[in-house]
3-methylitaconate isomerase
Amino acid sequence: MAWRTIPCAIYRGGTSKGIIVRGRDIPSDPNERDRVLLRLFGSPDPRQIDGLGGATPTTSKLAIVEVSSRDDADVDYTFGQVSIDKPYIDYRPNCGNISAAVGPFAVNAGLVEVDGDGMTQVRIYNTNTDALIVARFLVQGGRFQAAGNAQIPGVPGAGSPVYLDFSRVAGGVTGRLLPTGKRKDELLLANGRRLTVTIIDAGNLTVLVDAEELGLTGCEIRESEMVTAWSVLEDVRQSVGRMLGLYREGEVVKPETHALPKIAFVHRPIAYRTTDEVLVSDESYDISARVLTMGRLHPTYAVTGAIALVVACKLPGTVAYSRVRKRGRSSGMIRIGHPAGVMEAGAEVEDGDCPKVAKVTLMRTARPLMAGMAWI
């Protein structure tokens, strides 16, 4: 095999870490493109020992970024969830955390020109979900200013804030904010059990379940505390996926290869301790939520999952609306309690027979970790 190099960068975006490549530097043929990218990550291998992947769902992520030809965007961005132990890349979902790194990368790589120091913005078109994202952050000397005082749970230390405004977030997978037309659906599982869920397509297609229906408290911070509900959550996820036609007939579906739909469970606020043993009082957040990604409990809360959650919290009749604190139903920002702490996100939603989402806003931090050439 002839060895060659490919330009790439590794960035932390929010509580995720990913490899970023430019579209011009990878093959245009999808099969050859994925062969190169899987080699870059070191997949399939549980440790990704022969590549640059991080061997966990939150650190085996890909961003393909290139200058956009669209009038409403500066760059196009395609996200890929790279399977660790399977030769597969899922391009259907987006990752909001990695989205926080796209603007800074675009500036540092010279894809976007900036004038002077201070706050700048980069308009990003996400090809996965047909959504527009505006990233606002500080630049100095023509480059992203990574140092700052902003802190987010799940990331040690502090960094420069990256403000993200997500628009056109509804229906990226199914074409509808509420794919079934209902705010609640009753699912009949193969074992005869019935569960009430909300299916919402905002940010990423997400299924919301009441924690109490699963026998959970909403305070769980480790997978070992969710053993009794694990198989039920996957059954629910796959049932919704098949109902919505996401999988081919007879297709073998596994959480390690099929990222959608995402699934989360919610509960009213209860005091709990984070993974760092920090006490979070019930008054310091508005809704408890835990989300699964690629068959694992997310160590914090996925940004695109937060988009779906905060929109659902604004819609009467959803599972989330029945569990969120009253202030969270009406105020702009909602405080989400997750395993590592509290995350804030806001949504502007116009309710009605066909609800509309104007914008979802949140803050992350980002940091470039390396840029150079990788051997593949």
